[in-house]
Design brief:
This protein is globular. Strands 22-23-1-24-25 form a five-stranded mixed β-sheet. A four-stranded mixed β-sheet has the order 2-15-17-16. It is built from 14 helices and 25 strands. The longest helix has 14 residues. β12 and β13 form a beta hairpin. With 424 residues, it is of the alpha+beta class. 50% of the residues are buried. α4 runs parallel beside α6. Bound molecules: ligand EPZ. Ligand EPZ binds next to α1, α5, α6 and α12. The site of ligand EPZ has 23 residues, from α1, α5, α6 and α12.
């Protein structure tokens, strides 16, 4: 069994380069279904989720090849299959992002319904309602959603709940629909904006990116382009918080500070020294004990739910009482039980986690339950006295490109081991 072993209490120092954003790469891979021809994609992170998405595209008839460590050439000219099989969709819920593009490009789609996951039921009703409003005929049968439409029509779609992939799916579908689509209460995440900017480059007509109302004028066809994936703001936030956990100072490069406004504000309030060094560089330093602050997760530009587990580690060793409220997912406190094993004092009451700072955490064996929980356990291990062993690395590899190697390069005593042998 592969596991990570961390000897805590070692300050960090040096420079870390952030990889391309997982949550930008996945919708952008889906967007290659919208246009025949060769896409050249750069800064594609080497993640399990990206590998699964490429397997899915290949299943659909898309050709792809890796042209360098972080670049791909993708050609969906041969797209013919419209079925996304359950054995791939169950591995990665973001597979649902092929639904909109397949209906738009082929007029048909049969996509296995993604089940729930550790952090919640994760329904896709808003994706389906939007496609129906655009004229698709939908059927739910044998665990699949089947969608048909000769050509989708533009429609006005109001999201009862702001949905990132819901907005992305329907923005892609609308880009080839007949007429105008208005997405209201749309998501404003940088990854949604990045997808919209790619679609614009492909010839789509889109207005309102980054606001809660996005207007798309459908085109008859779009073209393949070259594109570079934006840096991963959640990975950047995770490394900022690694300094909060372990102490020391880091320079985070290849990041976009303006994507992290809410996070930087909170980390400053907690007592970290934050310097915007350049348009793509942030300096972070911990000086003394952290202060307890309250956090409430919100859709962008609020504090991201994907950094909730990580900041909980910082509050576990801060000077007082912190209330962390998770408003996006109904079950995203799975890391609490594991943090308690390391000595954290956390009580969960519904959507709130009450965190009372302790003087220090103590290393122990723990089990990761989901992607961001595994990141929080690593941060806790960096901080804890003694040795922490983390299992469940399949979750971690979905969203972080060898975070253990990046951390050991800046002073963390962290090793990845399989059957007792170190994996370098
Ligand atoms: C995206 O998930 C991200 N994944 C998640 O990142 C992220 O946590 C989430 O957005 C929120 O920012 C990708 O981009 C691939 P939502 P998504 O639809 O789109 C409810 C990570 O760790 N909802 O914005 O699935 C839903 O239950 C992952 O990288 C419906 O009710 O999230 C949730 O409560 C985890 N019906 C809320 O909306 C729907 O049809 C927001 O979910 C869709 C969503």
């Amino acid at each position: 069994m592969e596991h990570i072993e961390i000897k805590g209490g070692h300050r960090l120092s040096g420079t870390v380069r952030i990889s391309g954003a997982k949550n930008a790469a996945l919708p952008i891979l889906a967007a290659t279904l919208l246009a025949p021809g060769k896409f050249q994609l750069h800064e594609v992170p080497q993640l399990e989720d990206v590998k699964i998405f490429l397997r899915l595209l290949q299943e659909l008839g898309v050709k792809w090849e890796r042209t360098s460590d972080h670049s791909l050439e993708i050609d969906s000219s041969g797209l013919k299959n419209f079925e996304a099989p359950y054995d791939l969709v169950r591995l990665m819920r973001a597979s649902i992002l092929v639904l909109g593009p397949l209906v738009a490009r082929l007029g048909r789609a049969r996509v296995a319904l993604p089940g729930g996951c550790a952090i919640g039921a994760r329904p896709i009703d808003l994706h389906l309602k939007g496609l129906e409003l655009m004229g698709a005929k939908l059927k739910i049968k044998e665990g699949f959603v089947e969608a048909k439409a000769k050509r989708l029509n533009g429609a006005t779609i109001y999201f009862d709940i702001t949905s990132v992939t819901g907005t992305e799916n329907l923005m892609m579908a609308a880009s080839l629909a007949k007429g105008k689509t208005i997405l209201e209460n749309a998501a404003r995440e940088p990854e949604v904006v990045a997808l919209g900017e790619l679609l614009l480059q492909m010839g789509a007509k889109i207005k309102g990116l980054g606001t809660d109302t996005i207007t798309i004028e459908g085109s008859k066809e779009l073209k393949a382009v070259d594109w570079t994936i934006i840096p991963d703001r959640i990975e950047a936030g995770t490394f900022l918080m690694a300094v909060g956990a372990a102490g020391g100072k880091l320079i985070i490069e290849n990041c976009i500070p303006s994507h992290l406004d809410a996070v930087l504000e909170k980390l400053k309030n907690a007592g970290l020294k934050i310097d915007i060094i350049d348009k793509d560089k942030i300096g972070v330093q911990r000086r003394g004990k952290l202060k307890s602050i309250d956090i409430k997760t919100q859709p962008y530009p609020g504090f991201p739910t994907d950094l909730q587990a990580q900041i909980m580690v910082l509050m576990s060793i801060a000077s007082g009482l912190s209330v962390i409220t998770e408003t996006i997912f109904e079950n995203r406190f799975m890391h609490v039980a594991e943090l308690r094993r390391l000595g954290a004092d956390i009580k969960v009451e519904g959507r709130n986690a009450i965190v009372r700072g302790v003087s220090e955490l103590t290393g122990a064996p723990v089990m990761a339950t989901d992607l961001r929980a595994s990141a929080s356990l690593i941060l806790a291990g960096l901080s804890a006295k003694g040795t922490t062993i983390i299992q469940g690395l399949n979750h971690l590899d979905r969203g972080y490109e060898r975070i253990d190697k990046k951390l050991s390069a800046v002073g963390a005593r962290i090793k990845r081991l399989k059957n007792g042998k170190e994996i370098t």
